Amino acid sequence: MCNVLPTPAIEPTTDTFEARLVNALNESGLMLLTSIGYRTGLFEALRGQPPQTSQEVADRLGLVERYVREWLGGMVAGGVIETDPETQRYWLPDAHAARLTDIEGANLAVYAQFLSLLGAVEDEVIICFREGGGVPYARYPRFHEVMATDSAQTVLPALLDSILPLAPGLIERLESGIDVLDCACGRGRALLKLAERFPASGFVGYDLSEEAIGWARQQADALGLANVAFTVRDLSDFDTTAEPAAFDLVTTFDGIHDQARPLSLLRGIHRSLKPGGVYIAQDIHASSHHHLDREHPLGALLYAVSVTHCMTVSLAQGGEGLGTMWGRERALEYFDRAGFTDVTVHQLEHDIQNDYFVCRP
């Protein structure tokens, strides 16, 4: 039997593909400049301000004017910032500020940081292509910081009003007092918010990163939270080391697919739940089939994140290398293999990037 390739609806041409790549190169440059603008505070300094010279912008932030001027040129070329050529002044339109600053809704400049952060390990990833293995967590010094800003826009705003209500009666139980675990908690911002909101409940966070756990502990101390504890812990053997029937609620936020042994973690979560307990997992919305990801609005970006972080950090631990885009079908298979018999899948209106799974034993 011969294999026949599917015929695309519109036959591509070299010229149209070249135009697409040229545009992608240009937009990639814009994203690098966007990351710089976010990290230096330039967008915030321009937000809601009258037209300013490059020197005035630089002086407001204590930056070097020559760098600010060149950055402004790139933002003008990219159609992000406007300028008056006669006065050589610059301003950020309000409509653009709405998505490049924290004034309202999602600040998309946050996500531009991933490109430069992950591009820094490109040489090591290429070695892995040729020799196998992976790039360890230690090579990503800012990853947890960036992920914390990401979750601040996807998880935290929706946590109380949209995510917890996915499990009916859960908020009332938290108010009465239950035991909660967050696995792969990162900097623990979700747990910190829950511990503040539900003082009668007890909260525990586990993560492999000493830096992330250290940050979470400092924040808990600063907030005076006595009902939350953070522990550095390798969860690859959680299926055998998890304390049985210890928690009423377990959560993972974008925390399964980059584990060394994701199924072991899921089985440990199942083991750690008390009778009547519930597990809520947020993970990437995708298909487990490449051809079905063609229509994903962030498909290529998320595969890039997988190759340069999520998959490779798992492989660096001798792990499975499940990858960012493991997909809903495989996720449901893993939940079933871990022992969860009742799993519902939800998507939230504000979050095109993730699925939310409510799992019960």
Automatic annotation (TrEMBL):
Domain of life: Bacteria
Record protein name field: Methyltransferase domain-containing protein
Residues in S-adenosylmethionine-dependent methyltransferase Rv2258c-like winged HTH domain copies: 29-101
Keyword Isomerase: no
Keywords for this protein: Methyltransferase, Transferase
A Pfam match: Methyltransf_31
A GO term, aspect molecular function: methyltransferase activity
Methyltransferase domain ranges (all copies): 175-288
CDD domains given in the database record: AdoMet_MTases
Gene3D superfamilies: Vaccinia Virus protein VP39 (3.40.50.150)
InterPro entries attached to this UniProt entry: Methyltranfer_dom, SAM-binding_MTase, SAM-dependent_MTases_sf, WH_DNA-bd_sf, WHD_Rv2258c
UniProt record, GO biological process: methylation
